[in-house]
Amino acid sequence: SCQKPVDKYIEYDPVIILINAVLCKAQAYRHILFNTKINIHGKLGIFCLLCEAYLRWLQLQDSSQNTDPDDLIRYAKEWDFYRMFGIASLEQTSFLLGIFLTLWWMKPEMLKTNSDFILLLKALLLSSYGKLLLIPAVIWEHDYTPLCLAFIKVFVLISNSQAIRVTLNLNRMLPWLAIIFGLVLENGVVCLFQKMGWDA
Predict the structure, then answer these.
(1) CA 156 to centroid of chain Cα atoms
(2) Cellular component GO terms, alphabetically (predicted)?
(3) pTM score
């Protein structure tokens, strides 16, 4: 699966594998996707959506209003957080749908079976781990927070591109085309929400 006689990462420490994955090295991605038994794709996807929902919830003006500090139930009643989670979920779904549609249209032979779709979905969910950096970026808020958030978005897109490339054994151009189409579809959903008045 690693396209070499031997997967060199078998002998490496997990910390080194993680560092190489953060550096978006194709061999590290191949090792993680094909030669390990990682089964946290769904949990990681949900946690990334929670991070994104939390960021959006903090940016809402309603959530920053000063209320009684003794009101502990307030946090459980924050329906805006659940709304932001739903919006983030729909945007993520439309992004993934755009990627799948583009790849299926350009290279239908690559995604013939359900296992091909599932493997690509797992790879995309795993490669979105950069969204976990949203929480520290918000906690350590400073003047450069918008720039940090933009860098996190770019990092996640680069990771997604590398995951598509490694999973389907493609060149660099087609994964980026799929990601651009996914972003177009995601932004279309964002515009739809804004027109309907659902997004703040």
Answers:
(1) 6
(2) cortical endoplasmic reticulum; endoplasmic reticulum membrane; Golgi apparatus
(3) 0.79
